[in-house]
Amino acid sequence: MLSAPVRLSFLTASLICLGALAAACSLQRWAYLPPCPLCNVQRALLAAIAVVSLIAALHAPARRGARAYALGNLGLCLLGAGSALRQLWLQAHLDPAQALDFLNAEHVFTPSTGYAAAKVYVLGTPDCGIVNWSLLGLTLPEWSLLSFCMLGALAIYPLFRR
């Protein structure tokens, strides 16, 4: 049986993910900020962490099961942090004029093959480097990185709890 503090940490992680997803969808809907491919990856990873955490909180496994759930969440958090770091790198190193030229081009980027789509969702596109919103001086990928770090800390807790 899972202890109450560990169960609460999984439930907290699930609520943090749902809050972050609600904020992202609200920004998309009311601030007209369409998500780029890396934003979509981060949203999918947040949703996966929410599902794994909710299942862990409801399942309430023994210590070994809780550690398995925590390792799964930690892996998803590392992938999300990597995606957010890639987007931050694009924002720091991409020329904004290059991104705007790409977006205003006559062609629309639609990957037709699986390899091209996977490459886009791993490496991003020039529009991933555009900074179009910030809160308290932090851009969306910085908030996303902060969320994945907090969720990673919550995932580490069950691993070291006796």
From TrEMBL:
What coarse category fits the chief subcellular location reported for this protein?
membrane
Its membrane topology, per UniProt?
A: Multi-pass membrane protein
Q: Does the keyword Cell division apply?
A: no
- Classification via PROSITE patterns: PROKAR_LIPOPROTEIN (PS51257)
Q: Does the keyword Lipoprotein apply?
A: no
Keywords on record: Cell membrane, Electron transport, Membrane, Redox-active center, Signal, Transmembrane, Transmembrane helix, Transport
Task: List the transmembrane segments.
Answer: 40-58, 70-89, 143-160
Signal peptide region:
1-22
Pfam families attached here? DsbB
Q: Where is this protein localized, as stated in its record?
A: Cell membrane
Its name, as the record gives it, is Disulfide bond formation protein B
Taxonomy, top ranks, is: Bacteria, Pseudomonadati, Pseudomonadota, Gammaproteobacteria, Pseudomonadales
